[in-house]
Amino acid sequence: MILCITEKPSVGRDIARILGANIQRPGYYEGNGYCVTWTFGHLCELKEPADYTPHWKSWGLSCLPMIPDKFGIKLKDDRGIEQQFNTIRNLIQNCDEVINCGDAGQEGELIQRWVMQKAGCVKPVKRLWVSSLTDEAVREGFEHLRDQKDLEPLYTAGLCRAIGDWLLGMNATRLYTLKYGTDSQILSIGRVQTPTLALVVNRQMEIENFVPKDSWELKTKYRNTLFTSSLKAFETEEDGARLLNQLRPLPIEITGVAKKNGKEAPPRLFDLTSLQVECNKKFGMGADQTLRAIQSLYEKKLTTYPRVDTTYLTDDIYPKCPGILGSLRPYSALVRGIGEGRLRKSKKVFDNSKVTDHHAIIPTGQPLPESLGLDEKRVFHTIALRFISVFYPDCVFEQTTVSARVGHVAFKANGRVIIDPGWKNVFSRSKDGGTQSSEDQNGDSAVLPVFAKGETGSHEPLLAKKTTQPPKYYTEGTLLKAMETAGSTVDDEDLRESLKANGIGRPSTRAGIIETLYKRGYIRQERKSLRATSAGIELIGIIREDLLKSAKLTGIWEGRLRQIERGTYSAAEFIGQLKTMIGDITSAVMHDATNRRIRAESDGLRQTAPSSVSAGKQKKNAKQ
Prior knowledge:
Number of helices: 22
Strand order of the largest sheet: 2-3-4-1-7-8-9
Number of strands: 18
Shape: flat
Distance between the termini: 40 Å
């Protein structure tokens, strides 16, 4: 008998149907030589401090740092979980082979392996690895099962991530609570949570401490076109006015007209973060809200695996694209706009070298049901338009630069004319509830009148006052981008791709980190803007150790986890460095004689007194 273990009952039911295991038993399906059972996500977790030694049950600085000789796992304390685990264990004991059908990603690998380890599995294990849950994809996956050994680096990376979060979260939360907390406060510290909070706090401090500065730019208007001088902006209006008065009686002369054709490629396909950013921008959807919607679409077999960090497809997807496009019946007019013949195949879309576990998020080609919720409809619509657009031609435009001179001062005006909208037609023709697509908000320059070199005329010089503006508060969308690029402000898609390796958190966890900061009372939302609470500001202010709050330094650790996943970095070295870091931080905080204290309160901070907090209570406050 072959045992299949899925991550959810709904997935188990579908796989059982495909395999012909049609007899339903308590906790599993059976038939055709297969048994199909499931977990409920995480059945197991790392042991809590008190599970290693009773000495770690109570909170005390003398117990820190807590570093187990060997980490262990335990079953979650839940009656339903215990019952399902016993079912899985009994099935493992009686099967000939196990097929791990968990979510095809790092977390899914960790969930399933922990369950099999806890159950004492010594049977041969194969791995089902699919990017969508359509019947066709699942059948194809069963025809090409992978050996579990092939995914050992993926599991090792997930294990290192969990251990790292435990080491830093458990120790730093107790350390800072005991050293700096007041009146029963718990100060929650996490490997990803804290640098993310620091991003919000630092941006808010930049805004609050910003001092605007005025300057005056020399411009002139000629034939209803505004020309900008090449001179540096003036620090005082008086300096600019003196030159302006000198130029006013002089004619303007057109010294050159340069035209150049340019192309703008379609936007890249979506990874999870860019999808969350787009839905936040277009619909005001929160990161977690978008994640729930795309996860539901995936489980309904309408879109491919969502928790991805690549915007590329593999070459083997290309032959399937005409069928997927043809299935998008609500978008048939847009699909017809692609034209007949061979589909466009761009290296910015299809590149095997840019895909590891899963490709970018695209539709699967399954018919759309009428019962989708509003969030699901919005997310699918966004994905479908982006997928269609990558097969359209580039947008072709003509860029015109007109050079002019007044006296000794050079001026310039720019304009752009769209010759062929290409992919922009997808977004201009689509109907999305009146929301303009961000792809069509590129601020194209105005169309210029026809100028001839050598022409002269009168003009109207003016001084345009400019006032420096503070940076904008983060939204959930822009915070996700900052997490992805370790705090760098990046709009260029190619540069963004290169910075992903050292982003903080994973695509699948970033939404949860933001939700955690809300629940802790460290951030709040004002309209779309994220604001740090007084408690969040004080917490970041009291942390002096850059390793705890620097997005760039945390990004380096994330990069090493990705190297472990690829098998190019030592897990033992990673854990060793983490232990050293925890020791150094503990020593530094212990020797702080400033008597600093956190005073601000929030619902997320005021908990049970630290001296009596159990490890279980702490664990809820120490995730990432």
